[in-house]
Amino acid sequence: MIHTVEPQEVPDIVDICEPANVNVGLMGSPGTGKTFSTVECARRISMRKNNGKEMPLAINRPKKDGEYSVIQLNSTYLDPQDFVMPDIDVVEKVYNRYVIGSFPRTPYNLLSFEELAKNPDTFKIAAQIMNEGRLGFDYVLPDHTYIMFTSNSATDRAGSFDLHTDLINRVEILNVVPTARGFCEVHDGELAPDIRAFLKWFPDLIMTFDSGARAKPFASPRSIFKLNEMMTKSRFDPMKHKHADPVMLGLVGETFTAEFKAVLRASVNLGDLDGMMNDPEAHKDDINQLKDNTSHNGRQMICSLVIVLAKRTKREPSQFNKIVKFLEMIDDETAVTFTHVAHEVNPKVEQESEFGRFHARHSNEFYF
Length: 368
Prior knowledge:
This protein has a seven-stranded parallel β-sheet with strand order 1-11-2-10-7-4-3, sandwiched between helices. It has a two-stranded antiparallel ribbon with strand order 5-6. It has a two-stranded antiparallel sheet with strand order 8-9. The protein contains 15 helices and eleven strands. The chain is an alpha/beta fold. β5 and β6 form a beta hairpin.
């Protein structure tokens, strides 16, 4: 059985493996953060090689002095002859071989074979470099060069094959599986309130990949973060943009899109929020209805409630004080989630009096 880890846990394991020259292979469904993890591993390795100070990364480009190189070779498009290119001089009748220029020539590199299992012809290339540090007699790995690989599994319908036993036995293999909580922790401070709150109440939708569905878009950490970037940088509104449906369906698939838009639509049924906050006794029945509805629709309503109220703190962080007291009447989980989302919307809420009080009471609670 291959051990399952989250993408952000991989660098911790590489911290153990790299000094012992144990290479690491990352398996997982498409979009789970495997390549993202290799870059983070490179950052950590560069610090160990540079007395604790991170070296600038040269990712897939020529390296300058003082940089640490990250070289990602996509095995899908490379055949064995692409790694060692033949050159035949028909006049002199001489046959020469030259290793491709993509391989590192100077020390301090992370070399990653991306999508390795999609091309079994490259297995022996990767295995020899990992095991012997060389490629035939044409190429020797420079000092301080670490090797990783990423790949989908043969069952993922991503065109991958099973890894060969001799390759498996040469590396530490990890199965990368993301969680909504891990995703939010890694991207803390970067997420739209809609995305963060949605993943709190619907964490299973961090990954909607279905190996039985052919050529259909699906939600993954990669595609969800791209949606988030459109919402935060391009001001894409999933409810108001005229092309919202094709944009979302083509990026995060049907399941995520349908649930996400249902949550956003639920805001129209929240009732008189200001009345509930200003006079909770008079609106006791409305508050209890929000509190007691544990159905799927009820989760959509609470999620929508948190999104709507968190956005109020963008211009007026002082709104936090009244809102968090109101949400505590529903339950602590809702209030804690609101606190996380509101802080994402406007970090200045931490200067409010209720934030300090509330955080002291719930500092160890994340509610995922």
